[in-house]
Design brief:
rod-shaped, 37% helix, 22% strand, Arc Repressor Mutant, subunit A, 2 domains, two-stranded antiparallel sheet, D-Maltodextrin-Binding Protein, domain 2, single chain, alpha/beta
Length: 336
Amino acid sequence: MTVRKARRVPSGEIIPEPRPGRILPGVRAEALDPVLLRTFVAVADLGSFTAAAAAEGYTQSAVSRQIAALEDVCGVELFARGARGVRPTPAAEHLLPHARGLLDRLADTARALEGLRRLDTGTLRVGAFPTANAALVPRALALFRTRHPGVRPVLREGTTERLLPMLEAGDLDIALVSTHKVPSIDADGLVPLLDDALLVALPAGHRLAARERVPLADLADEPWIVADDPNAIAALRARCEAAGFDPRTPLRVAEWISKLGLVAEGFGVTLVPALAAAAMARDGVVLRAVTSGRPRRTVYAAVGRHARRSPPATAFLAMLREAAAGLGERGDDLHL
């Protein structure tokens, strides 16, 4: 290992002797240590190894070693040593604006990361099934906006089957799912939020509309309105079979406004999550609790693996819990 000689100048600084120039195959970007660049800029600005050492909190010998290390990386001399200190060489003058720009970008990156950590900026990507978007998600997003206005929320609506692949691909941070659509995600990523009762929507003039609670078996002869989706049909069938009958499903529509429109006109009945009941109130329809079996579903927040340490996702999960606690377990005493 070659040791660079040094000499002491009248100012008292120990200045390493220049290394003879040598041709390097190339400078790798990762070899440009920001610490070395910061010291290089300080020496160039202050014109002295000693002054740069005092400004940066190093010893003078440490600054000398850092400049020598950077010169080794670059393969050129960066400072002309003299009795009154040092001055940048033409190579250093060429490097200096690039070093300043890189240090500025690093500082900007550090500020951006700190903003993400402090929830001053960033993006939160949420997916939810439609009835969760009726009350639970808006309440949680409202809390989130109040406390972290700099974070931009992005919301996507869809079925569990559509949202989970997006979550697993990293396109969503959190997805709201429910038990009747069995999630294909590891249990560690599932956070229970609330148990949601399912109510039955009846025409206002229905023979059972005056009751506070309706046995599911008493609706065995009714036409059932359900989404034309194998999972939704299977979930309805499982609940009705537990009550002793196989439901007839001649009317298959997905949108709640369409379902309730058909109910209002007497074309059938449908199950409505209590979570969204208040948002579904309309003339000609009454919602009643179900006595037999009391069908329920558990609502979960599924957190993507990539987002389990994400500050926005962690904060929003806490607000989902808060919003869910405010909604409570609805439906048992809800009569609309």
